[in-house]
Write a structure and sequence with these properties.
The protein is globular, with a radius of gyration of 29 Å. The longest helix is centred in the middle third of the chain and has 23 residues, at about 285-305. By secondary structure, it is of the alpha/beta class. It contains 30 helices and 19 strands. It has three domains: about 1-280, 2-enoyl-CoA Hydratase, Chain A, domain 1; about 315-490, Rossmann fold (3-Layer(aba) Sandwich); about 500-710, Orthogonal Bundle (N-(1-d-carboxylethyl)-l-norvaline Dehydrogenase, domain 2). The strands form four sheets. Strands 12-11-10-13-14-15-16-17 form an eight-stranded mixed sheet. The two termini are about 40 Å apart.
């Protein structure tokens, strides 16, 4: 009856037809512009065919439809508001035509029906779902809300409270939850799905199920007659407001939309949704979060490309049973790679094993691991004092003290025990890979694997390629990180690599602002309001003042012009006072342990007096906007330097590293996406306005060139 590149319609007997999603030459179905157009055509063919009794909607893929084609959003979201509203409205015609067919429609959902896929299902009269399937509306994770009628239909099918919860949290739901909410009509095993759906369709066609009433309910207001607003929205909105991320308005906008649409009929509610969707699509959060999604795909592709030629890692060894070494060993074992954990200190080994057991027990308690998986992971860690088994290691991760001479001594002694294919990975956070490699007979086997603390939860691994590091060593390190479910990003060797280097530009700017008279509490407040999970002073307390000061020294030595040592340095002052942050109980703040052993931050009155000694001109007040610019502009400028120097290959990889490792505010999309959103002409203007505060505010020549030509960092492959 109809054959497109994404959809086909065929007769299946007894007056029934099957509308099947089967995207040509691709493993998944998605709602791109072509599929929406084909849906319009397919529904028109069905509507014009006499004698039909019903439609069965299916998918030929393992999943149903994963959602919209996000790669199309870039150009679409550049449309002016009125044109974008019309584009969304026009796309909705396909779903409305499906819903208004004069015959029953039953959709059989197996796998994932997310976003547009679930919105299609909601437009059908009846929904059957397999027990392994997932349904949901995850658009809020992209800074958006549903635009194919999801806010309208889910409110009327499952009720407004369920619609608010599902749309505002964006989480997919399993079959039981969907059935309980009334979002689907029947649940069964995958093996029974087609038969069950056809049986439901037959019942509907023969009058055993009032499918017309089900469709009519979606055309009316939520309260049935439009007489008034539904109760509960104020309470639901308050809960969503508490859960919403900073500067991400989509969830609250969706709640407001659903409240206004509750008293409207379907067509008026859909018009309202189209207009509201166009508004939220033009927000900074939507622009950035969609780019983050695309960047995640690019980073995954880059990792797959980089791991070509990797040696298999069947056995790992970790030197050093400290916080980092223990975390690396546990993560390796947890993901099925046995590991020997070597440290000369029995106390350190005992502590690492105890901590591993504690973390595994917590995962068992939360349901993320079974008891058997926990026991297996713990058995995969072999603690030892010496180098036994080193010859069998495919990867040896060094996580010992951050002293170059110590690393040279240890690695030089161990290198001759390694087999020819062993990759030697250093977890150093500050020392250059080339400097460490000087001690080795075979420097090509040394690669950096910079994990972040805590290893168990931090996703990023900087894979550092020194000047002598072989491609095989890089590939093996990338593959090992992927096997541990981490996100590896390959960076070039240099002081601070990528993340610490860019972070130090931000931290150094905060330290300079303090020496200029700013209140550290005000700086933390402003930057947390901007979206950082913690202000720069609190962050240094969490990192450790001694660690932060050491990194600052390394960065200053590498980039003395833009990030020199400060004459009046708050980190050095804290260090001299023995205030190391959380680890010592006091830093910029003081810390007390609660009943669960967690460090609770308290304002310390002594801190202001200490910092006043660094402020010869006395305290000063700064506007919030100036504080943001004084910290974020060096962050952007240093990121631009790193990109231009080839420290990382693409803007997407650079920003993803900052997002994953630093908690950079998600709605900004990272340093470079933030600059693109502001406009590089505006970034350059702001930099020039504060240029007197030092060379860290001097835009790169490339930034000025892009600004002059209206260019962006993400001009290729982004928006």
């Amino acid at each position: 009856m109809y054959q497109g590149k994404s959809i086909r319609v065929s007769a299946i007997g007894d007056g029934f037809v099957e509308l099947c999603f089967d995207r040509a030459e691709e493993p998944i179905n998605k709602f791109d512009a072509r599929t929406v157009a084909e849906l319009k055509e397919a529904v028109a063919v069905i509507a014009a065919s006499p004698g039909l009794r019903g439609v069965l909607a299916t998918s030929a893929k393992e999943v149903f439809v994963v959602g919209a084609d996000i790669t199309e959003f870039g150009e679409k979201f550049k449309l002016p508001h009125t044109e974008l509203v019309e584009d969304v409205r026009s796309s909705n015609e396909a779903f409305v035509a499906l819903e208004d067919l004069a015959l029953p429609t039953v959709v059989a959902v197996d796998g994932h029906a997310l976003g547009g896929g679930f919105e299609f299902a909601l437009a059908c009269a009846l929904r059957v779902m397999s027990r392994k399937a997932l349904v949901g509306l995850p658009e809020v994770t992209l800074g958006l809300f549903p635009g194919f009628g999801g806010t309208v239909r889910l409110s009327r099918v499952a009720g407004p409270q369920a619609a608010v919860e599902w749309i505002s949290d964006g989480k997919p739901r399993g079959a039981d939850a969907a059935l309980a909410a009334g979002a689907v009509d029947l649940v069964c095993d995958s093996s029974e799905l087609r038969v069950a759906a056809l049986d439901l369709l037959l019942q509907a066609a023969e009058g055993g199920i009032d499918w017309r009433a089900a469709q009519e309910r979606k055309r009316k207001p939520v309260d049935g007659n439009g007489s008034g607003r539904c109760a509960g929205f104020a309470q639901w909105r308050a809960r969503v407001a508490l859960a919403s991320a900073t500067h991400q308005p989509a969830a609250l906008a969706a709640v407001d939309l659903m409240e206004r649409a509750a008293s409207l009929d379907r067509d008026a509610a859909l018009a309202l949704e189209s207009e509201a969707f166009a508004r939220v699509a033009h927000t900074q959060a939507a622009s950035s979060l969609v780019q983050v999604f695309l960047s995640e795909q690019l980073v995954k592709k880059a990792a797959r490309r980089r791991m070509q030629g990797a040696r298999p890692v069947r056995q790992a060894m970790v030197l050093g049973a400290g916080i980092m070494g223990g975390g690396i060993a546990l993560t390796s074992a947890r993901h099925g790679i046995p590991v020997r954990l070597s440290d000369p200190s029995p106390k350190a080994l005992d502590g690492a094993v105890t901590e591993a057991a504690r973390l595994l027990a917590r995962q068992v308690k939360s349901g993320r691991l079974s008891a058997g998986q926990s026991e297996s992971a713990l058995r995969a860690i072999t603690p030892q004092a010496g180098s036994e088994g080193i010859a069998a290691a495919d990867v040896l991760v060094e996580a010992i003290v951050e002293r170059l001479e110590t690393k040279h001594q240890v690695l030089r002694a161990l290198e001759r025990q390694l087999h020819d294919g062993t990759v030697l990975a250093s977890n150093t956070s500050s020392l250059r890979i080339d400097d460490i490699a000087r001690a080795l007979q075979r420097p090509e086997r040394l690669v950096g694997m910079h994990f972040f603390n805590p290893v168990s939860s931090m996703q990023l691994v900087e894979v550092v390629q020194g000047s002598a590091t072989s491609d095989e060593a890089v590939a093996t390190a990338v593959a090992y990180a992927c096997a541990m479910k981490k996100t590896p990003i390959v960076v070039k060797d240099g002081p601070g690599f990528l993340v610490n280097r860019v972070l130090m530009a931000y931290t150094g700017a905060a330290l300079r602002l303090i020496s200029d008279g700013a209140d550290y509490l005000a700086i933390d407040r402003v930057m947390e309001a901007f979206g950082w999970p913690m202000g720069p002073s609190y962050l240094q307390d969490v990192i450790g003042i001694d660690t932060g000061s050491h990194v600052a020294d390394v960065i200053a030595a590498g980039y003395p012009r833009r990030m020199p040592l400060l004459e009046r340095d708050a980190l050095k002052l804290m260090l001299a006072q023995g205030r190391l942050g959380q680890k010592s109980g006091a830093g910029f703040y003081r810390y007390e342990r609660d009943a669960g052993g967690r460090a609770v931050k308290k304002v310390d009155p002594a801190t202001q007096a200490l910092l006043a000694t660094l402020q010869p001109a006395g305290p000063r007040s700064f506007d919030d906007e100036e504080i943001v610019d004084r910290l974020m502009l060096p962050f952007v400028v240093e990121a631009a330097h790193a990109l231009e120097e080839g420290v990382v290959a693409t803007p997407a990889e650079l920003d993803m590293a900052l997002l994953l490792a630093l908690g950079c505010p998600a709605y900004t999309g990272g340093a470079l996406k933030y600059a693109d959103w502001l406009g590089l002409d505006e970034v350059v203007r702001r930099c020039d306005a504060v240029r007197a505060h030092g060379p860290m505010y001097e835009p790169t020549p490339r930034m000025r060139q892009l600004a002059a030509g209206g260019g962006t960092f993400y001009a290729q492959g982004g928006f």
